[in-house]
Every structure is written in structure tokens, then in C-alpha cells.
């Protein structure tokens, strides 16, 4: 008697069922992975933008550092990748002590939810 | 041959394994990127908190150069910072930081520690103090007489006559390089004044030779019979602190505060090496530094009321100015004195030269600081040799003169992210 060739229907169905079930579980990981990566890139870009704004403000003359600096909206491409996120950069200045100003820069953006980073430093009159 | 059994299961598991590894790998990479970004955020918050702490410390030092308190943690939301300071602005020997570093005299070490979550950044800054400067390069409540080539950088002001038989070059310092006289200005046979184009010569009395003032070059602004505030006589009495027309007058209780100075009562001569050692040295009976003597270190010499500081030895050199203030006192016991200072050998100082009466220069002389002769009507500054006086911050802290000095200049010598 000749041995049967190929896979039996039963084997194929069991294999497909196992594969499909496991694939569904694994596929659930991908959005999380991609989401975390995107969130990381966005956070890094936001921190860089905030740094850039803090440095710009620290470079101003002490008297030119005024409260409620203008808001700027920056479309920012992450590492040259396609797609961009729109960030809102906002600087705020207060003078809690004579000759000492508090400089606060916030960068906010929205994807599925709202995000915000804030850097705070102080600048003294020379 | 028998067909191998379970092959489809093995293939399925293999494919699944590949997909799971790929998925987990991607997830790990994504989470790592997020973690790195969060670390970067916390790191920058800590760094800016620390740098802000340094700025706050600089502000404290500018307001109070003796500040040693440090700053407690602030700003828990976006990064907190604590500041430690090792302040040696007014010290005479090295101080040691809590970390074991040396802080030289005239400097302060500021250590700001920024924290944000698990991130921490320290910033260390070495700050130098300028101790402030007086309002004039050269001031006399009496006369000023120039008999050798002289350069004054900063304003020159005298209540009495200003005379010159040599070239007097005036340069601006802190924006001011005027000649201001409440009396007459007389330029002898070889006397002339070279001015900066932005500066003026103003005398309340006569300027001789008169118009067109060919002996005054460089500026078109020459005023005789000037009645502006600039030529008002010095206010020489008391410790009036408003306006630039006030001659400095030390608060002796601070200059010679008990326990802060070295008392050389009874000593009237120095013949060998003398180390200032960062201290105030008080010679109540006057002092003669013989030609054989030598001064080293940095500090202050105070000559007693009614006596003379006679310097016959070389002080410093043109390339290494001696950081010393020399003060000849008046009024320590409520009487008027007449103390004098005489410089008979090459003198190169960074500091204040101040006499209640005369300052006499008989050899090459250069001061980076200020030169004042105080006593109204009687004082004179006379230079018979090469003389240069440049208004500048004092190199050594001088107690008792704070009210007459500009706010100290605090400058950052090094800024290190640790």
C-alpha cells in the first residue's frame, strides 16, 4: 500500500487555528511597540525644542526677558522620518526676586492624547 | 518510507516563534526609545534646575559678597536644586570645599545639585570677585602736580590747582576720562594734556595758556570758568555717600575692627622681607620700608594718623603688580592728622593708594585701582617720575570703604558640568 502524500485536512486546520490564534496575540504587541517608539521620538523632539527655546531666552538681555513670551507653533519632523507633529512652544517669565528671573518653557503636542514637557531655569542680572 | 508525522505543527511553531521574537524585539526597541527619551527629559530638567541654582547663587553674591548660606531645595515639580557655596572672596588663604577642592582667596566655589526623579546633574562654578572700584582714578582735595609723563585712565578731579610741566594723557575708563578742576589748570612750558575725543576738560577757575587751548589736544570740549556740578569741590567731610563728588573716607571701626588686623605698634621701620599674608597691617606710628626691604603677598597697609608711610623699596614690578591697598589714616582718635605717603622706588600696585594728606611719587609709579589725597586744601598729589594711574576694581578686599565702592563685579572664571 502506498503511503499517503501531503498534509491531511485535519493537520492543516489544526495548524491554521494555532497560527491564527497566536498571531492575533502577537499582533496586539505591534501597536504598543510602535506607539512607544513614536511617543519616545515625540518626547525627545519636544525636549530638544524646549531646550532650544530655553537657550534662546537665556541669550536675551536680562531686561528683554519679559513675562508671557509669544507662543510659537512648530511643525517638527522626527529624525527626518515622514510625517510630522505640530508642537506648541510657550515661554513664560516671572521675577520672583529682584534681579532674578524664572524662565519656564512648555512644549505641548497632541496625538491620541495631549502631552506636555516643561523645562524651568533661572537667570540672574549680570 | 513512512511519512514524517507532526511536520505541520513544527512549521507552525517555527513561524510563530519568528513572529513572536520579531514582535517582542520591536516592543523592546519601542519601550527602550521611550525610556531613553524620559531619561533625557529628566536629565535636562535636572541640568536646568542646577544651572538656575548657579544663577540664583550669582545673584546672591552680587547683592551680598559675604553670602555663605547656600540655597535649600526649590522647585519640586520641574526639577529641584540645592546650592552649596564656599565663599573665599575676602579670605587670605585657600579654603577647602566639602569635596576637598581648594578655593583661592578672592574667589568662591558654587556647587549646584539639580534633581529630577532619578536624574541628577551637578554644576560647579568658580566665581571671582572684583571688590568694586572708586569713582575716580585720581582725586585730590588739594592740588595735583605733574612733572613727568603721566597717564591717567579714568576721571581726574582736584579741588585745588592742577599743574603740569609734562605730558598728561587722559583715557576713559568705565566711560569717563575727564579732567575736572575746582581751581585753575596751568600747563607749563612742556605741559600738555592729551584727551580722548569723547572726554572734556572742565575747570572752575582759569586754564592757562588760554584760548585756543593748543596745549589741550584730542578734544574740542574745554571749559574755563565752568560752573557745572562736575567742578563742584569735593565733599570731604563725614561719610556722605551720595554722588561722585564725595572723597572716600574710611569707616575706621570696620577697617581696623578688633581682631581682624595685625597691630605693629612701636615698629617704625622694616628692613627685610615682609609678607602681607592677606591681612590688614596697622602701623600706628608710621613706617619706613627701607631700600633693603621687600614686600610680598597681598593685603593692606594702614599708616596711623599724622604719620608717614615712606616706601624706599621697590613694590611689585611692571609685569607683576603687588596686590595691596595702602591707606594713611586720619581721624582714628577724632583729630585731624596729616598722614603722608611717599614712594621713592619703582612702585607697581593693584589696589588703592589713599592718604589723608600728600601722596608723593619720586620714581616710576603705576597703580591699577585709585589714588586719593583726602585732606581738604592741604593735600597734594605730585609726580616727578613716570606715573600711571588706572581706575580699576580693587584686587584685595578693603574693609571700611564699602560705601564708596561700586558694586563688586562678580565674574565667572569657570563653569563645569560635573
Q: Biggest sheet of chain A, open or closed, and with what strands and sense? A: 4 strands, antiparallel
Quote the average pLDDT of chain B: 88
SSE pattern of chain A, N- to C-terminal:
HEEEE
Number of strands of chain B: 35
What does this structure look like?
By secondary structure, chain A is of the alpha+beta class. Chain A is built from one helix and four strands, in the order αββββ. Chain A has one helix spanning 9-58, and strands at residues 71-77, 84-97, 100-110, 114-124. Chain A has a four-stranded antiparallel sheet with strand order 1-2-3-4, with helices on one face. The longest helix of chain A has 50 residues, at 9-58. The termini of chain A are far apart. With 418 residues, chain B is mostly beta strands. In chain B, 15% of the residues lie in helices and 37% in strands. In chain B, the strands form five sheets. Chain B has a 16-stranded parallel sheet that branches. Chain B has a ten-stranded parallel sheet with strand order 17-14-11-8-33-31-29-27-24-21, with no helix packed on it. In chain B, strands 1-2-5-6-35 form a five-stranded antiparallel sheet. Chain B is elongated. The mean pLDDT of chain B is 88.
Question: What is the topological layout?
Answer:
The complex is a heterodimer of chains A (126) and B (418).
Chain A lengths: L8 H50 L12 E7 L6 E14 L2 E11 L3 E11 L2
Antiparallel strand pairs in A: 1-2, 2-3, 3-4
Chain B lengths: L6 H57 L7 E4 L5 E9 L6 E2 L5 E2 L3 E10 L2 E11 L8 E3 L2 E4 L3 E4 L2 E3 L3 E3 L2 E5 L7 E3 L3 E3 L4 E3 L6 E3 L3 E2 L7 E2 L4 E2 L28 H4 L5 E3 L5 E2 L2 E3 L4 E4 L3 E3 L4 E3 L2 E5 L4 E4 L10 E7 L11 E4 L3 E9 L3 E3 L3 E9 L6 E4 L3 E5 L18 E8 L1
Parallel strand pairs in B: 7-10, 7-32, 8-11, 8-33, 9-12, 9-34, 10-13, 11-14, 12-15, 13-16, 14-17, 15-18, 16-19, 20-23, 21-24, 22-25, 23-26, 24-27, 26-28, 27-29, 28-30, 29-31, 30-32, 31-33, 32-34
Antiparallel strand pairs in B: 1-2, 2-5, 3-4, 5-6, 6-35
Amino acid at each position: 500500500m502506498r503511503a499517503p502524500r501531503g498534509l491531511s485536512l485535519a493537520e492543516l486546520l489544526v495548524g491554521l487555528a494555532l497560527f491564527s490564534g497566536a498571531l492575533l496575540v502577537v499582533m496586539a504587541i505591534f501597536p504598543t511597540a510602535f506607539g512607544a517608539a513614536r511617543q519616545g521620538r515625540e518626547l525627545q523632539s519636544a525636549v530638544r525644542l524646549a531646550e532650544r527655546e530655553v537657550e534662546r531666552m537665556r541669550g536675551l538681555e536680562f531686561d528683554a526677558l519679559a513675562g508671557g513670551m509669544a507662543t510659537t507653533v512648530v511643525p517638527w519632523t522626527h529624525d527626518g522620518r515622514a510625517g510630522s507633529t505640530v508642537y506648541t512652544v510657550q515661554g513664560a517669565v516671572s521675577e520672583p526676586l529682584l534681579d532674578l528671573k524664572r524662565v519656564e518653557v512648555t512644549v505641548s503636542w497632541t496625538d491620541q492624547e495631549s502631552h506636555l514637557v516643561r523645562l524651568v531655569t533661572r537667570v540672574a542680572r549680570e | 518510507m513512512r511519512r514524517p508525522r507532526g511536520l505541520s505543527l513544527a512549521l507552525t511553531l517555527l513561524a510563530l516563534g519568528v513572529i513572536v521574537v520579531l514582535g517582542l524585539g520591536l516592543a523592546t526597541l519601542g519601550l527602550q526609545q521611550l525610556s531613553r527619551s524620559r531619561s533625557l527629559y529628566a536629565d535636562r530638567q535636572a541640568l536646568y534646575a542646577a544651572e538656575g541654582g548657579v544663577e540664583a547663587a550669582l545673584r546672591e553674591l552680587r547683592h551680598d559678597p559675604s553670602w555663605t548660606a547656600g540655597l535649600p531645595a526649590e522647585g519640586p515639580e520641574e526639577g529641584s536644586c540645592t546650592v552649596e557655596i564656599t565663599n573665599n572672596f575676602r579670605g587670605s588663604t585657600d579654603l577647602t570645599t566639602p569635596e576637598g577642592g581648594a578655593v583661592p582667596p578672592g574667589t568662591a566655589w558654587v556647587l549646584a545639585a539639580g534633581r529630577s526623579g532619578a536624574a541628577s546633574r551637578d554644576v560647579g562654578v568658580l566665581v571671582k570677585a572684583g571688590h568694586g572700584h572708586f569713582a575716580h582714578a585720581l582725586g585730590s582735595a588739594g592740588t595735583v602736580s605733574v612733572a613727568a609723563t603721566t597717564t591717567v585712565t579714568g576721571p581726574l578731579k582736584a579741588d585745588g590747582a592742577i599743574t603740569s610741566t609734562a605730558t598728561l594723557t587722559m583715557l576713559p575708563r568705565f566711560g569717563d576720562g575727564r579732567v575736572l578742576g575746582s581751581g585753575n589748570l596751568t600747563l607749563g612750558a612742556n605741559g600738555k594734556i592729551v584727551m580722548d575725543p569723547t572726554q572734556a576738560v572742565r575747570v572752575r577757575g582759569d586754564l592757562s595758556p588760554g584760548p585756543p587751548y593748543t596745549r589741550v589736544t584730542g578734544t574740542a570740549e574745554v571749559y574755563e570758568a565752568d560752573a557745572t556740578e562736575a567742578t563742584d569741590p569735593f565733599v570731604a567731610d563725614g561719610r556722605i555717600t551720595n554722588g561722585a563728588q564725595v572723597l572716600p573716607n574710611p569707616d575706621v571701626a570696620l577697617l581696623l575692627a578688633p581682631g581682624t588686623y595685625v597691630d605693629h605698634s612701636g615698629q617704625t621701620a622694616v628692613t627685610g622681607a615682609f609678607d602681607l599674608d592677606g591681612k590688614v597691617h596697622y602701623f600706628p606710628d608710621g613706617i619706613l620700608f627701607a631700600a633693603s626691604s621687600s614686600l610680598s603677598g597681598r593685603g593692606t597697609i594702614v599708616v596711623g594718623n599724622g604719620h608717614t608711610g615712606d616706601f624706599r623699596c621697590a613694590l611689585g614690578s611692571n609685569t607683576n603688580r603687588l596686590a595691596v591697598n595702602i591707606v594713611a589714616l586720619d581721624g582714628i582718635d577724632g583729630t585731624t592728622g596729616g598722614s603722608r605717603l611717599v614712594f621713592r622706588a619703582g612702585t607697581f600696585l593693584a589696589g588703592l593708594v589713599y592718604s589723608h594728606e600728600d601722596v608723593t611719587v619720586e620714581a616710576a609709579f603705576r597703580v591699577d585701582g585709585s589714588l586719593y589725597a583726602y585732606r581738604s586744601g592741604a593735600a597734594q598729589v605730585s609726580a616727578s617720575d613716570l606715573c600711571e594711574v588706572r581706575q580699576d576694581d580693587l584686587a584685595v578686599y578693603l574693609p571700611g570703604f564699602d560705601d564708596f565702592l561700586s558694586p563688586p563685579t562678580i565674574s565667572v572664571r569657570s563653569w563645569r558640568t560635573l
